[in-house]
Structures are given as structure tokens and as C-alpha cells.
């Protein structure tokens, strides 16, 4: 059983172009948008020089079938019946091909990726979880949990069925806070899985000072900072570690060790060798 919140309409979205499309934002567009983008970019030299790149981005979110010219009429009926959109793609002045494209469906938890997880609603996530469930949140692999939690706030609770919706309880508070919920029956108990899309935060960008001119490379200027927080451990303001203190009385021949190679006195070794020879 799932409780569905109203899905807000997506407004204020800036129209994307083929050159601004990424493997994440491509999930925001539909089949007709792809044909429109290609039509708008057919005279762009950069697009013609990087056809493979743009096609790979589109293929990450769409299924694409190239239709041979002699089979267009028959194939168009076939693919249209399967939910594909059919249209022409102009690669250059001499080359035009026909594509049948269809958005990749997100039906199972294995269809979820880091690229598409933020492009579905909490209601859609609950629908996917409901279709694949049985064992509860912990039945999902850690990798799937990580993908889901990269885009959604997730919390769970397991209570007796008659106590789950107790007035003033967690269930009521989560629903009031805008969470969607999936209820997974477990005998006389129920596991409730609450999901809410995380607010999108702007990622920090690399910004170069004027004196560091590395050329006009848009990709470099817009590159995301790595997640790891690299620090210069030679910084003067970094506090030094406390030196280790030892108690001389606690050191004895049983607990003392060193990494230095302590060699025997060479004179003593010579005397011992001489005694051995005389014997």
C-alpha cells in the first residue's frame, strides 16, 4: 500500500540544447525534444564533429533504433505501436537517417542510477519499490540504497499494524511533511518506508583567477569539484600532534623495541672468534 502526494508541476525549466545535454539532464527531456534539438543543431560544426558523444548521451536515457530507408513505412508502424517516436536526424548536408526512439522505462530498482535518481518523483520511487519489494528496505542491496539516498531522504519504521497510524506518531508527521510512504506488510507488523526528494543544492564550481588563464574551455570552467576534501597538511595553522610521552619506569627488556639495527661490538666479536679458533 502506498500513499501518494500530489506531484508538483515542473515550471521555469530552461529549454535545453544538444550541446548542453548531459547524462543527467537528458532524463528531463522527451522523444520529441530530441528531434527538436537535432533539427536546431544540424548546422553546428561542433555537433557534426562530435556525433558519437551526443549520441552516447542520448542513448543513456533513450532506446534508439536506426531504420533503413527502404523499410521506413513498415518499421514506422511497428515502432509506433511499441511506443516509439519516429523522426529524421540530419547528420550533415548529405546524410539523413531515420530514428525510432523511446525513453528508457524505470520499472525496477535495478533501473535506478545516479544519473536518473533525481529526475523521478517520490511517488514514482514508491511505485518502483512497491513493484520490486517483499522483504523491506533492508532487502535492497547496499549499492541500490546508496543510489536512492543520493536523491531522496529515506526513513523507515516497523510497528504493529494497529499502531502504525497512531495520531501524532511518525507516520502522521512524515505525511504532513510531504513524504510519500510505502507500507510493506510483515505479518501483524508493517514496515513503513518514507521517501522525499532532497532539495537540489548548487554544486561548487572551480573558479580561476584572471592571472591563471587556461584558455576558453567551457568544460574545465564548469567542472565539478571532487567530493574528497583535499587539504594541505603542511599548512602553518594546522595544529601539531601531541608528542608521545613515555614513562622510563615502564620500559623494560620485554616491552622495549626499536627499528634501528643494533649491532654487536666488533672488538667483542673478534675476541669470541679468536677463542673459538684456539679451541
Task: Please tell me about this protein's structure.
Mean pLDDT is 77; it is low at 4-12 and 206-264. The chain has helices at residues 31-40, 45-49, 51-59, 72-81, 122-132, 142-151, 170-176, 218-221, 266-278; strands at residues 2-3, 62-67, 85-90, 96-103, 152-160, 180-186, 189-197. The longest helix is centred in the C-terminal third of the chain and has 13 residues, at 266-278. The strands form two sheets. It has a four-stranded antiparallel β-sheet, sandwiched between helices. Strands 2-4-3 form a three-stranded antiparallel β-sheet, with helices on both faces. It is elongated, with a radius of gyration of 32 Å. The protein contains nine helices and seven strands; from the N terminus they run E-H-H-H-E-H-E-E-H-H-E-H-E-E-H-H. By secondary structure, the chain is of the alpha+beta class.
Amino acid at each position: 500500500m502506498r500513499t501518494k502526494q500530489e506531484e508538483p508541476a515542473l515550471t521555469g525549466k530552461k529549454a535545453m540544447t544538444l550541446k548542453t545535454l548531459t547524462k543527467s539532464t537528458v532524463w528531463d527531456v522527451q522523444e520529441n525534444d530530441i528531434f527538436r534539438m537535432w533539427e536546431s543543431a544540424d548546422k553546428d560544426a561542433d555537433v557534426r564533429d562530435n556525433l558519437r558523444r551526443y549520441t552516447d548521451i542520448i542513448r543513456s536515457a533513450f532506446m534508439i533504433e536506426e531504420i533503413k530507408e527502404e523499410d521506413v513505412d513498415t518499421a514506422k508502424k511497428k515502432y509506433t505501436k511499441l511506443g516509439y517516436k519516429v523522426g529524421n536526424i540530419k547528420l550533415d548536408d548529405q546524410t539523413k537517417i531515420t530514428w525510432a526512439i523511446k525513453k528508457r522505462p524505470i520499472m525496477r530498482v535495478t533501473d535506478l542510477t545516479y544519473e536518473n535518481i533525481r529526475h523521478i518523483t517520490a511517488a514514482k520511487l514508491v511505485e518502483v519499490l512497491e513493484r520490486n519489494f517483499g522483504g523491506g528496505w533492508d532487502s535492497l542491496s547496499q549499492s541500490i540504497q546508496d543510489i536512492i539516498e543520493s536523491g531522496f531522504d529515506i526513513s523507515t519504521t516497523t510497528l504493529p499494524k494497529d499502531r502504525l497510524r497512531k495520531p501524532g506518531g511518525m507516520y502522521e508527521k512524515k505525511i504532513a511533511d510531504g513524504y510519500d510512504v510505502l507500507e510493506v506488510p510483515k505479518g501483524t507488523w508493517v514496515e513503513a518506508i518514507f521517501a522525499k526528494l532532497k532539495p537540489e543544492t548548487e554544486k561548487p564550481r572551480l573558479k580561476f583567477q584572471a592571472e591563471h588563464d587556461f584558455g576558453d574551455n567551457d568544460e574545465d570552467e564548469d567542472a565539478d569539484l571532487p567530493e574528497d576534501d583535499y587539504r594541505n597538511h603542511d599548512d602553518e595553522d594546522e595544529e601539531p600532534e601531541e608528542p608521545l610521552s613515555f614513562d622510563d619506569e615502564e620500559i623494560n627488556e620485554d616491552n622495549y623495541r626499536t627499528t634501528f639495527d643494533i649491532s654487536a661490538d666488533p672488538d667483542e666479536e673478534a675476541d669470541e672468534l679468536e677463542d673459538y679458533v684456539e679451541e
